[in-house]
Amino acid sequence: MSEESSVEEEWTEKKHKEEGLIVQQEQNDKRCATYTFNNEDHTLGNLLRTVLSGHSDVEFVGYSIPHPSESKMNLRLQTITHDTNDVLNEGLRTVQNLVKTLRASFVEAVKVSQK
Fold first, then answer.
1. Which residues contact 46 (CB under 8 A, 6 or more apart)?
2. Rounded to the nearest 5 degrees, what angle is found at the Cα of 22, between the Cα atoms of 86 and 43?
3. For labeling, which of 49, 52, 56, 82 is most exposed (least CB within 10 Å)?
4. Is the distance from CB of 61 to CB of 19 less than 8 angstroms?
5. How many other C-beta atoms are found inside a 10 Å radius of the C-beta of residue 33?
């Protein structure tokens, strides 16, 4: 058995087709994971990278688009002590709150401009 295949066996892969998300996380170390977001691109990738890089427990965060013709975005996340799933959930909640605030500001500006 090659070293590469033994490393691959240490990873668990959970597919959530309804959410378009594939989670690859080591079984014995929840501080490191790769998330593949289907039907996403640089818009979400850069936003999540920016938000997560400000988290105090994040050691590394980066994203990539494997190929321009594929609508996939890979996010790599490594934390110091916390489970990456928890940190990603916090980041997604932060993004959601930013969007709510931005939308409220936009709606208010449209109301003001129509007066």
1. 63
2. 80
3. 56
4. no
5. 22
The candidate with the shortest Cα–Cα distance to 51, out of 100, 104, 103, 87, is 87
For residue 20, give both structure tokens: 């378009």
With tokens 């930013």, the residue in question is 98
Q: How confident is the model over 4-56, as pLDDT tens digits?
A: 555 554 554 444 444 589 999 988 999 999 999 999 999 999 999 999 999 99
So what CATH class is 3-113?
alpha beta
Q: What are the structure tokens assigned to 47, written together?
A: 């936003």
Give 17's contacts (C-beta < 8 A, 6+ positions apart): none
